[in-house]
Amino acid sequence: MFPELNNLLNVSPDKPEQGKFTLLCDAKTDGGFLVHHFLSFYLKANCKVCFVALLQSFSHYNIVGQKLGVNLIAARDRGQLVFFEGLKSTVEVLFGSKEQPNTLKFIRESSSDLKSLYEFVQKALTPSGDGSATSWKFPVLLVDDLSVLLSLGVEAVAVLDFIQYCRATVCCQLKGNVVALVHDSDQTEDEENAMLMNALGHQSSLILRAEGLVTGFCKDVHGQLKILRRGLLQPKSEQTRSLIYQYKIQDKSVTFFARGLSPAVL
Amino acid sequence: MLQILASRGDLVLLRDSVEWEGRSLLKALIREVALKGEQVQVLGCEVSEEVFREGLDSDTNSRLVYHDIFRDPQGWTGNWGPLGILRACLRGAEPGPCTLAVDSLSWLLLHAPCSALCQTLRALGHDNSHPGRVRVLGLLHEDVHGPGPLGALRSLAQIEVTVGGNLGFTTAQVFHPKPRHRSIEQTYWFSILPNFSLEFHKEPLLEPRPHRGPQSPTVDAMADLTFNVHLSKKEREARDTLALPFHFSSEKQQSLLHPALASSTSQIFYEPDADDYLDQEDPDDDLDI
Amino acid sequence: MESQQGEGGTELDSQSSIWVNTGGNKMAALTTGFGRARQGGAGDPREYKAETAAGGDKLGGGGGGGDRGCSFLRKVSVPGSGGGGGGGGGARLRSIAGTRPSVQNGQLLVSAGLPALDQLLGRSVSSERRSASSGRREGGRERGKKEGKEQINRRERGCGTIQSEEGASTRPQDLLWGCSSPTAPLGVLLYLRGGGLAVGTLLLIEEDKYNIYSSLIFKYFLAEGIVCGHTLLVASAKEDPGDILQELPEPLHDDNYKKVLDEGRSHKSQEEPEISMKIAWRYQNLPQMEAGPGTSSRFGHYYDVSKRMSQEVIQSAKWHKFFLPEEITSYANVESCALNHGYTKLLHFIQRVISEQGFDGSNPQKKQKNILRIGIQSLGSPLWGDDICCADTPEHMHSLTRFLYVLRGLLRMSLSACIITVPSHLIQNKAVTSRIRNLSDTVVGLESFIGSEKEANSLYKDYHGLIHIHQIPRLNSLICDVSDTKDLAFKLQRKVFTIERLHLPPDLSDTVSRSSKRDLVESAKQLSPGCGMMAGGKEHLDF
Questions:
Q1: Contact at CB, B245 and C284, closer than 8 angstroms
Q2: Within-domain flag for B213
Q3: Which domain holds residue B244?
Q4: Would an 8 Å CB–CB cutoff place C8 in contact with chain B?
Q5: What are the counts of helices (DSSP H) followed by strands (DSSP E) for chain C?
Q6: Chain A residue closest to C414 (CA)?
Q7: Nearest CB to C170: which of B253, B259, B287?
Q8: A78-93 residue pLDDT tens
Q9: Domains in chain C, ordered, with CATH?
Q10: Does residue A260 surpass a pLDDT of 90?
Q11: Which residues of B touch C166 (CB under 8 A)?
């Protein structure tokens, strides 16, 4: 969790917003730091988190999480975190026994239906009613990242519908949040991915977009973050619907500053 | 703008983008229609019914019939096609003039063939129970689709409204092609209040933007230089004999290591005056780095 | 600074330049911290080195002030001994040959077989870089607060910088910048703490047009495995893996590498007599990319491409072979799978090796742990039965990306490192290329000048091609260690493959025609800034 990002978004773990879909994008840079931010943020906010991790292994998220002050193993043990490890699951699908039901079975069957993945999320986040789940504030679904699903042969519309089902369940029914990362491959003619990103943008109420600097690599400014709030705003906050900050990622935090005001440049 | 919308047309396209969303405008238009006492059918694919009704007054909400596809986009819990629902929307409607708001056509385009959607939309406008009295407000996310489907839908529409923005204001560009008349093309500046009423503004005075003209043809950088580019032989010799300040030589090393021995022409002697103010502190101490 | 601007002119006022220097002397004396640095420099060069390193170096971080030198010295033993500061994984696995723990993130690293490449792929903290830093876009990464302040001081009082740099450069070897590289003592040691490939990750090499240099890197990777005693798994659809193994280059052992590098150098100096260059002090201490391997480290070797590895060594190596034409003997029993047939076979083969040989750590009672090095040649080419190179909208568009995803899963769960070469220039649909990169960990592109118009460009006359680091993984960390230099070029010398930072060749003649100069500058502008960030508009300024 990066306190500076919380300030920019005007939230804190004590009073997080509810019922929102936040889209994370990265273009020409790695937006993974945003995923780590939201993972640690919601764990600290005492929310029930279902993390669909498709890109990296559990240990990666865990080690970075420790740097940000959350322990994923402990969170998983106390039932706060439900971790879906896509890499492991895929290997099991391909080399495990066939009878075993698996969430990612489409890899083997060439059908691209994400229904089983949705059912996994639904099961993970719906309160079981035995009282144990009531201690968590609200449920959160986190996905890293949706572009992987396209690489696995899922159609963009299926991914969109998956997110829509998740929104219907998590945001509307359970009053929780959905956060998902998608890569922007702007210059690479990946039309399917571009369509996915834009369509997800229309579903979201907040878009955080990390971009590499147009002028190239810089040691002290790693990129810029565009914050775009969608939907109807209070008239007074009209000016702040779209903001751009530059950032520098450090070992355990990220510092944000206005464009051109990096401490290294001043 | 509202007058234009008041005229009956088959299809009004509301085009929006990720940057400037058009759902608020759609809701504002629905409110205007409902205020006239008309019933509004809404086909909701992208947001839940609660979210859609949020912010609208109870009067409007009571005239609003919400057909919900959002909860089950692929029919995992039931089985039907999205276009079937679209057709069914008007069946339960009261006779008389009727408005159908589609949120959104983009969603339908992703889930149904383009031609089938166009046919269905066309058929809606000529529905027997509401002859000539159906108006369809369709939200279309133009950055989601390629030029083909976009063009097909535009050819069906009587009025196109493109939502955009400038200098913090929302704009709506209304384009109303009229056969045998001059087509209307106008830009409105407005903001939407929390109760979804529209507030129109005068066009703000646009400051003339910095004009980026075509680049001036490249000038020969060598043309009017105040120094020589090339050296004569003599000049080069003179240059080579010169000890460059940035070049480290043994003499300089000596002069640095034993400053006393180096009797160079410029020496700085500093004798503090009795009244001199000597600040012992680090002058940069207050910098927060 | 003024004096430098006057450099191009015909007249130089020596008087004024001396004045600048004495002014600098005074300023430095007033600035706390530099006096100390200077003393160190004059006394024992090592001490100065250590001190400057601590600021730019994460390892020394946290400890500001007095003990910086000590904390650095303590850490310097890490790369040699192969133990120490790694995370839990590192300590547990310290006995595996040819690996070392990543000091920062607790991973186990293996060498790619090309130390120059290892450097680029990981943390390469160098003492020199620290002292070279000033100005807009440089500066140590993790400076402590105090350090940062000093840096600012230096910049604001430009003269102070002069003084401290000169204080450092009183060492004789720094004065011999032009030929100091293989012997540059301390910088090299520090370099070697840098990168490597993390175990469990995938190195993707985007082939050059004729697959000359990429196959060389492929062989380096395998040769390094044999030298370190790792198990190999070689997969190919074109050449018999046995033949590939026969062509592996001979390692250059510690005393040989120096000779060869020197040889290359003297070879060069015979052709064109060494021209004594006048180099501004400001640039004297800049590190050279091609720092040779250090004798104290067993991590990473250079190889002599002119010799083959000896038969005994190859025969003693443990390796597994996957040759596609031999594997696909029967088309029966083909599982209805979303994956292409060859890929499925290969995945099952790799999985079997990993589980049967205990690389997944599943049965800890099995003997000594070892690393599995997987090399897959020209993946995605039509010989693998893939059509991404043949069609714009391929039928099996997702076959390769699915394969890579499953492979990624296998790698993450085992003690293995993998190199894959892919003919990216043949892939028709660029969307596939970007997805492939996204599913790999490290992505390195090679662009050879053979048959390209760049071959004739005088900017590139010293090189054989460009190397583009497209992606560096962020593993177990928020940050990744990107090297400062994005413009890198490689050349294949008589025996060794070297990577250097690309620079404009020195302009030795005064009579170079204006037009050709402009061409050079233009072509230099076309260089991409690298690592997935492309300079866009010409008029754009980020700050």
A1: no
A2: no
A3: 234-265
A4: yes
A5: 23, 14
A6: A88
A7: B253
A8: 999 999 999 988 888 8
A9: 197-260+322-446 (3.40.50.300)
A10: no
A11: 248, 256
Determine contact, residues C105/A63, Cβ cutoff 8 Å: yes
DSSP H or E segment with residue C492:
strand C488-492
A:184-203 residues touching chain C, CB 8 A cutoff: 185, 187-193
- For A204, the closest chain B residue by CA position comes to B18
The A residues from 212 to 241 touching B (CB cutoff 8 Å) are 228, 230-232, 234-235, 238-239
Contact C374, C354 (CB under 8 A): no
Look up the domain containing A115 and give its range: 3-257
Residues 102-161 of A with CB under 8 A from B: 115, 157, 160-161
Q: Is residue B222 part of a domain?
A: no
Task: Check A153 against C477: CB less than 8 A apart.
Answer: no
The ipTM (two decimal places) reads: 0.94
Task: Name which of B24, B193, B289 is nearest A263 (Cβ-Cβ).
Answer: B289
Q: Which residues of C touch A109 (CB under 8 A)?
A: 336, 338
Q: How many domains does chain A have?
A: 1
> Which of B104, B143, B192 lies nearest to residue A198, judging by beta carbons?
B143
- The reply to whether residue C435 touches residue A151, judged by beta carbons under 8 angstroms, is yes
pLDDT digits (tens, 9 = 90+) for C448-497: 888 778 777 777 888 889 999 888 888 888 887 666 667 788 888 888 88
Q: Does A60 touch chain C (CB under 8 A)?
A: yes
Task: Provide the strand spans (E) within chain B.
Answer: 11-16, 40-44, 64-68, 98-103, 134-141, 159-166, 169-176, 184-192, 198-201
DSSP C427: -
- The DSSP code sequence of B137-149 is EEEEETTTS-HHH
Query: What distance in Å separates residue B109's CA from the closest CA in chain A?
Result: 10
Closest CA–CA distance from residue C340 to any residue of chain B (Å):
29
Between CA B257 and CA B264, with CA B262 as vertex, the angle to 5 degrees is 135
C4 in reach of chain B (CB within 8 A): yes
Residues A64 and A75: their CA atoms lie apart, in Å, by 14
Q: In angstroms, rounded to a whole number, what is the distance separating the alpha carbons of residues C479 and A252? A: 9
Which of C151, C177, C281, C282 is best to mutate for the B interface (most B CBs within 10 A)? C281
Instruction: Kindly report the number of other CB atoms within 10 A of residue B264's CB atom.
Output: 12
Which CATH number goes with the domain that contains B60?
A: 3.40.50.300
Contact C96, C299 (CB under 8 A): no
Q: Which of B156, B180, B201 is the last residue of a domain?
A: B201
| Cβ–Cβ contact C336 with A under 8 A | yes
Give residue C173's pLDDT band: very low, low, confident or very high (50, 70, 90): very low
Q: Is B287 within the bounds of a domain? A: no
CA distances (Å), origin A265, targets A97, C254, C543: 58, 43, 8
In this complex, the residue of C3, C149, C514 whose CB is nearest that of residue B287 is: C149
CB pairs under 8 A between A and B: 68
Total domains in the fold of chain B: 2
Say how far apart CA A208 and CA A229 lie, in whole Å: 9
- Which of A47-51, B243-247, C15-19, C361-365 has the weakest average pLDDT? C15-19
- Segment 67-106 of chain C within 8 Å of chain B by CB: none
CA–CA dist C296, C303 (Å, integer): 17
Average pLDDT value for chain B: 78
Q: Does B243 lie in the same domain as B189? A: no
Verify that B29 and B164 share a domain, yes or no. Answer: yes
Is B178 a domain residue? yes
What dihedral do alpha carbons B259, B261, B263, B266 form, nearest 10°? 0
Report if pTM > 0.95: no
Cα end-to-end distance, chain B, whole Å: 54
Average of pLDDT values for C55-60? 34
Which pLDDT value is given to residue C524?
A: 56
